[in-house]
Amino acid sequence: MRILIVGEGGREHALAWRLARDRDVAEVMVAPGNDGIARGHRTLPIRADDHDLLIDACRAERVDLVVIGPEAPLAAGLADRLRAAGVGAYGPSAEAARLESSKAFAKTILAEAGAPTARAEVFESIEPARAALARFGPRWVIKADGLAAGKGVLVTADRGTAEGFLVECLVDGRFGASGRRVLIEEHLEGDEASLMAVCDGRVATALPTARDYKRARDGDEGPNTGGMGAMAPHPAMTPEVERRAMEGIIMPVLARMAERGTPFNGTLYTGLMLTASGPRALEFNVRFGDPEAQVVLPLVEGPLAATLHAAAIGRPSGGAVRRASGAAVAVALVDDGYPDAVHGAGVIEGLDALEARDDVLVFHAGTAWRDGRWWVRGGRAAYVVAQAPSREAAREQAYAAIATLGGRGWRCRRDVASDGPAPVPASRGAR
Ligand code: AMP
Ligand code: GLY
């Protein structure tokens, strides 16, 4: 099988690494990829939004399967275009991708599927939305309907802040078309978990569960980020909780999508709140989570490429993927100003030595290779991932590896996968 992965972050590096391990995979290419991915795989200089060039490349390279990493190309219809061109695409149609690209659509499908979620109302103008605040909160949960690069959700106990956000979305157009509609939602309490399933339109195969660390600082403080780390499996996702989430949320939603003539092929990811009355859906993503993929994929054994290919073309897969025992932990190395003020001047020393070791994995996101060094190009530079028999051991292994790194202008959270900080420096150099 010849595979092309679309995207350029840590998730795509993890996908390339994992798929290349399957015996039936001849080559994994990545478009556009990044300098770190290019060390181990051929990268093609084609952007995810250049659908025509991607289709040409699939023909020229005789690609059997395209795995689409990020949500934007899915929402823009890349999977539809590829399928129409006769190329196997793992990822939902634009219509099915609305589960992520419209939170109002996701609520409608959840309701039709009878799946547990937070009560919500949808608004397109400011006065009714403002008046509705009295029916919710405190705390208030307000969401821009469309894609907003992870910035479209506000959770606050302050009514003024809630009103301000409504004005930003509905009056000032802060998120453009994505914020012309908002949802005001019931606030749920509990532990959050990520559950991903490989879906072929009818059948869902659950992958190991995960938790991501979204906040910038130790102790879950600071602003939300694209992900400071992750662990798998999620300690609170017992087989019983997972069964309830699969049978109560993922499977009925998949069935509902098929019924309305828009079957879902790809990774259906539900962000769950584990409430006292059971798991409830907070959101859907229509792709692998980032950084969840970096910890989940190392724990998937068996023919993953064949499983994704079978899901892509809606056929039963020949063999089943299995879960490895043990745990995986990923820690993000980020620009020391991330997420508010990325400096883009950091250097990470020792990454290549880590990559050469067999007790940790390095997945590159926003790094650049220049003058013989790894520079911190974007907010999230790279992920250090360790896999071990227990979560504690994986965490220790990851932080021990990070402690060998030098350089400047980067930092990491010290408390990924733990209740307290790890005994290593949080940052090096500047600030
Ligand atoms: P979302 O993008 O919809 O997952 O929301 C981003 C984050 O906001 C989630 O990871 C939760 O931490 C929080 N959140 C979203 N919806 C709710 C809710 N109904 N109750 C409490 N917290 C929420
Ligand atoms: N980790 C959440 C996401 O991928 O959006």
Explain how this protein is built.
The chain is an alpha+beta fold and 431 residues long. It has four domains: 2-91, Rossmann fold (3-Layer(aba) Sandwich); 121-185, Dna Ligase, domain 1 (2-Layer Sandwich), CATH 3.30.1490; 190-323, D-amino Acid Aminotransferase, Chain A, domain 1 (2-Layer Sandwich); 327-411, Phosphoribosylglycinamide synthetase, C-terminal domain (Glycinamide Ribonucleotide Synthetase, Chain A, domain 4, Alpha-Beta Complex), CATH 3.90.600.10. The chain has helices at residues 10-20, 37-40, 51-60, 71-75, 78-84, 98-101, 103-113, 126-132, 159-170, 239-259, 292-296, 304-313, 351-356, 391-402, and strands spanning 2-7, 27-32, 42-43, 65-68, 88-90, 120-123, 140-144, 153-156, 182-185, 191-200, 204-206, 211-217, 221-232, 265-275, 278-285, 300-301, 322-323, 327-335, 347-349, 361-364, 367-370, 373-376, 380-388, 406-408, 410-411, 427-428. The strands form six sheets. Strands 12, 13, 18, 20, 23, 25 and 26 form a seven-stranded antiparallel β-sheet that branches. Strands 3-2-1-4-5 form a five-stranded parallel β-sheet, with helices on both faces. Strands 6-9-7-8 form a four-stranded antiparallel β-sheet, sandwiched between helices. A hairpin with a 2-residue loop joins strand 21 and strand 22. The mean pLDDT is 94. The site of adenosine monophosphate has 13 residues, from strand 7, strand 8 and strand 15. Adenosine monophosphate (AMP) binds at residues 118, 141, 143, 153, 155, 185-188, 192, 271, 282-283.
